[in-house]
Write a structure and sequence with these properties.
Elements: E1 2-6, E2 9-16, E3 19-23, H1 24-27, H2 37-41, H3 44-57, H4 63-72, H5 82-89, E4 94-97, E5 103-107, H6 108-118, H7 120-164, H8 172-191, H9 195-201, H10 215-233, H11 238-265
Antiparallel strand pairs: 1-2, 2-3, 3-5, 4-5
Helix pairs in contact: 6-7, 7-10, 8-11, 10-11
Length: 266
């Protein structure tokens, strides 16, 4: 669930079956006068558009029931609720939700047309804010993917520690101490502080130092974990690895920030 603000109107966006649906109950608040979603649904142009959309995307659409409803469009007595329309036609473009975030939701393709019914200006702003939301989600997804990559590479890193640094006779407690020490080799090389020092300096923050890393830092960290695993397998002492890893961190961060700067100039 997410929110976008369109000309002072807060609109809810949810995912249903991996598709984006926008709350048209929220959107109708922006229309002048007293209107309801049913007023829009009874419009013949609305029904024609929905019928074509369902034909393209919904193999279970009931065209017979839809034809009966469509033939009544334009008559003064004609009125159909979203719930009734969905039940009769098996339409998937509209969803009526109950509960905290209840209301009528429309697939984004249909919701944009609903926004046009409110006003052309409102549709433009709905599309703009929705695109901005999607861009933010993509950035967040990119950060999460790189965080997961760093976690996966950490397993490679810890496996190298187990094979080359931990004698079989060590107790589990001693083993965890060595793992923490090696993790801090990377922390100090990249961030300049240990995990404990970060927690002491940030007592009100949840998680650990890596949860607050930038995307560039996570890319660098992922590379360093692989490199440290190789250095460990080669038998390089920890203090020498720390120096090498710090030099690598400085070089890689400089390159990554340089790439980012060039993108901004374009």
């Amino acid at each position: 669930m997410a929110k976008i603000t369109v000309k002072d109107t807060e609109v809810t966006v949810i995912q249903i079956n991996n598709e984006d649906y926008i709350c048209i109950t929220d959107m109708i608040k922006a229309k002048d006068g007293e209107f309801f979603v049913a007023d829009w649904l009874r419009n013949r142009n609305t029904l024609e558009y929905i019928g074509i959309w369902e034909q393209v995307y919904n193999p279970d659409f009931n065209y017979g029931e839809f034809a009966i409803i469509k033939n009544q469009a334009g008559l003064n007595r004609f009125k159909v609720s979203v719930k009734e329309f969905v039940e009769k036609t098996h339409a998937i473009c509209l969803q009526a939700k109950a509960g905290r975030y209840g209301g009528t939701y429309a697939h984004k393709d249909i919701a944009f047309e609903f926004a046009l019914w409110i006003s052309p200006e409102f549709k433009i702003y709905v599309v703009k804010e929705f695109q901005r939301l999607k861009e933010q989600e993509q950035k967040s997804l990119g950060w999460s993917a790189k965080r997961e990559l760093a976690k996966i590479n950490y397993h490679i890193h810890t496996d190298a520690i187990k094979q080359h640094l931990i004698p079989p006779a060590l107790t589990p407690q001693q083993t965890s101490t060595i793992y923490a020490s090696e993790a801090d080799v990377l922390n100090v090389a990249l961030f300049g502080i240990t995990a404990a020092e970060w927690r002491k300096a940030n007592p009100n923050l949840k998680g650990n130092i890596r949860d607050y890393a930038t995307i560039n830092e996570l890319i660098c960290l992922s590379n360093m974990e692989n490199i440290n695993a190789v250095l460990i397998s080669e038998g390089l002492p920890q203090h020498e690895r720390l120096i090498k890893l710090n030099q690598i961190a400085i070089q890689q961060m400089s390159v990554l920030q340089g790439v980012e700067s060039r993108k901004l100039l374009h």
